[in-house]
Amino acid sequence: MTRARFAVAINNRYFLLFDDGTILPTRNNLAGRAVSLMRSVIAVLLLAVTLSWAQRTPAQMDVRPIFGTTVPPYGCLPLRIIVQNDGPSVDATLVVEPSRWQAERRHLIPLPLPTGTRKEVIALPFILPNTMSVRVWLEGFRPTVEQTLSVTPDENARVVVAVGDEIGGLEFLHRLNPQQQNPPSPAPQPLFIWSWTYCRPESLPDKTAAFSGVSVVVLASGAERLTPAQWQALRRWVAMGGVLIAPGGSGAIYLRHIALATILPIRDGRIQRWSDWRSLAFFAQAKTPMGETFVTAGKPAEGAKVLVGANGIPLVAVRPYGDGAVVFTAFHFWDKPFRGWDGLPNLWRRIVEPLTLQTVAARWERTLFPLGQWAMPSRNPFGAPMPPFGVVPPMPPDVTPPLPFRLEVPSGAFILTMLLVYFLLAVPISFVILKRRRALDWQWLIAPTIALSFVFLLARTALGLYQLANQNLARAVVLLPTGESDGYLFVGATFFFQRGGTYWLDLGGDAEAVFARIGENWTPTPFRLETVEDRTIRAPLSVPNLAFRQIYFAKPIQLKGMVELRVRKEGERLLRVTCINRTPLTLKNVECRQAQPILAPSRAFGGQPAWSSSWSGAALPTVKLPDMAPGQTVTATMPLTTISRLPPTNPRFPSTSVFPRPRWVVLLAQVDGLDVAPRLNVPATRKSFVTLQVICPMP
Predict the structure, then answer these.
(1) CB within 8 Å of 550: residues ≥ 6 apart
(2) Is 145 in the same domain as 164?
(3) What is the pLDDT of residues 284-313, one digit of tens each?
(4) Are 169 and 269 part of one and the same domain?
(5) Contact, 507 vs 514, CB < 8 A?
(6) CATH value at residue 122
(7) Where is pLDDT greater, at 85 or 34?
(8) Is 128's pLDDT higher than 90?
(9) What total number of domains does the chain contain?
(10) What local confidence, expressed as pLDDT, does residue 348 receive?
(11) pTM of whole model > 0.85?
């Protein structure tokens, strides 16, 4: 019996080929169906491959927060964004947009992506109290490549960053956070919520603004690889209220770096073995660590305070620097016998917590907010230069400078009265008079005449605005530690545009933070602030006619010289203050005041100055100094205020504090000759009002 070996299709007809060569047509369509099914399967597979290739994303993006997603309000959330392009070359734009209510903000970063490239970008979005997420996407790709991060703004958050090669060792901070107890304990719970993260030196940002959401930085082995730009950013951050912990030990090579050595609480450090921890255990109220380890032994530096010592060697010391402090421990938390020691939480509570009563982000807010205020001669505020009535309490007349131009604006009551009179004259009164005189035909002439007359009267009241040129005004604060020329500049820029259009604002390449508004209680007309961040930071401003706009920004500044402030005690009740002006600038309206940290949460801002002079309302001493020419030295005395403790109604102050007295003496002075106003692409009248704040720790 012969068998069919092949099924052959000829002209859409199917035949069977047998072993003996016989060819017969098929009696059924089974072979035809098999071939048709095979063709359909191949077509479907080709279509699926084509669709998957068409929908394949040519770019891959990875977004990672460097310090975590828990940030205090007005703190920075630094993001490391890695983009890989496997498709054709494209000029894309990386967009970073924090979600905010009535305060739209976008960072636009041009990102050319040739084929096969991999680029890394550090973005610095700031988190406001109403920010819930940060969206990152690439413009220029289809489909859109995007990623959204959820954030948690918390005014009680205290972020700790360990910089180095070590992983682990800060888990004891969990014991300092509020614990859920059942039943609830009557003892007061701590208000600080500590969160911690670990960062390698190569991943640490080199911008000071990136650390505004961080309260404490702990150095570890490997921190010696930090670049000079990273060290300089850390120094500026400490001057603005940060706490830098520099442990010693055998791996503390970073202590030799010049940027850190000049602000360390010790000098002439050397490595030696140590095993006597009794004084440390007594200070921490814990069991004595058992074991020997290497420590860094040295002598206390000028201005440092030794908290724990033994045999003349400082084991724990603190040295204020600017608004912050540097904490030195002769040992390292990661070394035995301290890894897992039960005394670390109490040691942290007694040393670090009193230095972090206020976050660096809150200081940013309190410094920037007053810079948007101007003393105006008109009865009511107009536009953006001032917030609504009632937000800011009355301030001394020398705090807020007046606008450098006369701004006459018609009040709302005047405009409403004019409109009411116009409608009364244009409709009922004119109609009744013309009807009595039987001259209604004149209505076509009288109505336009009355309208033009009232338009003329209203235009005359705003004539000063139309005659006013474009204005570019800046109020600024330069924050400087005593004896330093490297500081940080906070600017609130107010613009007035006579004609509507789109204007370009150039903030320079060193600007690190740009805001459209500061403070959730102030609600001027919202507008979207977009910044194009390439070699320089530029912002387009689209405005109508006769419009005000405000921009806040911050950046480092290098002065040509320094102001040296020296403070020493004379007895138990007096301070002698010596001020030396080593800058080429003349200091005017100079005053020195004692200062303490503000303990109110950042949500409760509202006109409090950047420096608080009291705990409960009574002003601390202030001394007025004469104007100081370049090179001049002035000496004055002021009473020393002693405060043993805070009022018991304030739960934020720990019961064991290292600094029961005022912590700083601050010199405030107005300086001329510093032009800090940003650049506009149109001619404008420029004016800068700069206040110098020099911070000296209390002796």
Answers:
(1) 372, 384, 385, 492, 493, 494, 495, 516, 517, 524
(2) no
(3) 998 988 888 899 999 999 989 999 998 889
(4) yes
(5) yes
(6) 2.60.40.10
(7) 85
(8) no
(9) 5
(10) 94
(11) no
